[in-house]
Amino acid sequence: MTLDWSVVWQHRDALAAGTAMTFALTVATMAVAVPAGIVVAVLRMYGPPPLRAAATAYVELFRNLPLILVVYWAFYVVPILTGLGLSALATGLAALSLNVTAYNAETFRAGINSIRRGQAEAAMALGMSRSQALRRVVVPQALRRITPVLASTWVSLFKDTSLVSVIAVSELAYVSMQLRAQTFRVLEMLTAMAVLYWLLGYPQAKLVDWIQRRYQVTE
Amino acid sequence: MTAGDAAADAGDRRKAGGATILRYRDVVKRYGTFTALAGVSLDVHAGEVVCLIGPSGSGKSTLLRCTNGLETLDGGDIEFEGTRLARDERGLRTMRQRMGMVFQNFELFPHQTALQNVAEGPRTVLRMPTAQAERRAAAMLAKVGLADKAANHPAALSGGQQQRVAIARALAMEPDVMLFDEPTSALDPETIGEVLSVMKALADEGMTMVVVTHEMSFARRVGDWVAVFDAGRIVEQGPPVRIFDAPQTVRTRDFLGHLGWAG
Questions:
Q1: Helix, strand, or coil here: B32?
Q2: A219–B154 C-beta distance less than 8 A
């Protein structure tokens, strides 16, 4: 077997573009899923009963569906049901966001629950409304406490974006697979892909460790 | 003791002439089948320091928490400055702004510095510009002797310092009455004194205070009026001299006796 690693270098621009798309998807998904996760968590905890039930149903649905199924479903079924024709990118982003929002909502709920009741009471004793107490006192502390968990979710998400390759979003996995098919250099391209994911993912995982140390809660 | 008896005591109630800030009438609070307050009546006049004493679980803290609506009533009434305590969230918020509360466990906001903690109420509730709120906060910290700790987070302060910051935080709202819920119970013995002396200074300025406390010497020395709780009722209330030197009821004598109070 002869190996030809030059194909990797030849297609460096395509791989770089795929990597950029992977990062963009990760950032965009988190940009949606962090605020949306807070909203869902707050609705689930403090919302009026119908919204509370809806938020719970949402979380339990998307937490327990395989992400790849959600991706397929959003791509093939949603247009049939709604007549909406979103681009592959928008569909992929939506599927990732729906999934990660559900996880983030549970993370936030745990974080908010971990802040003892006296904190909200002290805020309300100053004359704050329940939502002011949440915004100014409870959520900022909860965020600090769950930063390590969010960071782990980030690293998982970075790798899970590869699942939207099945609907032809040209992120790193899709680009690598395409190149593999075009060049027939299976081992080289898959190895290049593994190396790229690892080189990008490892520093992020180390950053998570650092964040975990940095944000240890002191009271 | 009934409301009528309390009125009869007005003769030896030094500040009874002041406006009634708080009036409790037959206040009842239940938690499931447990009755925490079984009909409590008490008046608090402007400028008075009213100390609530009695064994743990006798309802003192519950009465304080009912006062600013952290707990809802199951019976009776509380009037604050002549108005029945609001039952709705918005009305309660307006009343809470005029009642400062100090908690046993301080409940400072750990993600904020001492200065930010004290400025939080004026900033968020009174919508004061940050600079102005922080000026007020700095003045309040100076008042409790912690001007030099403004930039510290609560974790970097001793228990006594944290409680003084908590007092400053409540004062920053310029309340008409201060509610203290066992403010020294979570403190090391050596820092209790600094908190009590801040409270004494407040009392000397004429602040109206309701203090749940196990510090009998503070109640005796600083209190204008003392109410003795037992099993959800006030068994005796009167000026500290009478409560401590000539208690009228067996329950009061027992309670003080258990604490080793010589009388």
A1: coil
A2: yes
Question: For position B64, what pLDDT does the model report?
Answer: 96
Handedness of CA B230, B235, B239, B245 (dihedral sign): negative
Q: Do A126 and B109 touch (CB under 8 A)?
A: no
R_g of chain A computed on alpha carbons: 21
Position B9 confidence tier, pLDDT thresholds 50, 70, 90: low
Provide the shortest C-alpha distance from residue B93 to chain A (in Å).
5
B113 Cβ under 8 Å from any chain A Cβ: no
List Cα–Cα distances, B1 to A123, B26, B51, B60, B197, in angstroms.
35, 11, 16, 16, 31
pTM (2 decimals)?
Answer: 0.84
Is the minimum CB–CB distance between B173 and chain A shorter than 8 Å? yes
B120 closest CB neighbour out of A121, A130, A136: A136
Asked if B107 and A128 come within 8 Å (Cβ–Cβ), the reply is: no
CA atoms within 13 A on the CB side of B161: 18
Q: What is the DSSP string of B47-59?
A: T-EEEEE-STTSS
Neighbours of A126 (CB within 10 A): 28
Write out chain B residues lying below 8 Å of A132, CB-based.
Answer: 124-125
Q: Which helix (H) or strand (E) holds B75?
A: strand B75-80
**Is residue A185 scored above 50 in pLDDT?**
yes
What per-residue confidence (pLDDT) applies to A218?
61
* CB proximity A136 to B under 8 Å: yes
Contact A176, A52 (CB under 8 A): no
Contact of A126 with chain B, judged by CB distance below 8 Å, is answered with yes
Which of B148, B26, B168, B66 is closest to B108 using CA atoms? B168
A63 pLDDT more than 80: yes
The residue among B3 and B42 whose pLDDT is bigger is B42
Q: Which of A86-95, A98-107, B4-13, B148-157 is predicted least confidently?
A: B4-13
- Give the model confidence (pLDDT) of B217-252 as tens digits: 999 999 999 999 999 999 999 999 999 999 999 999
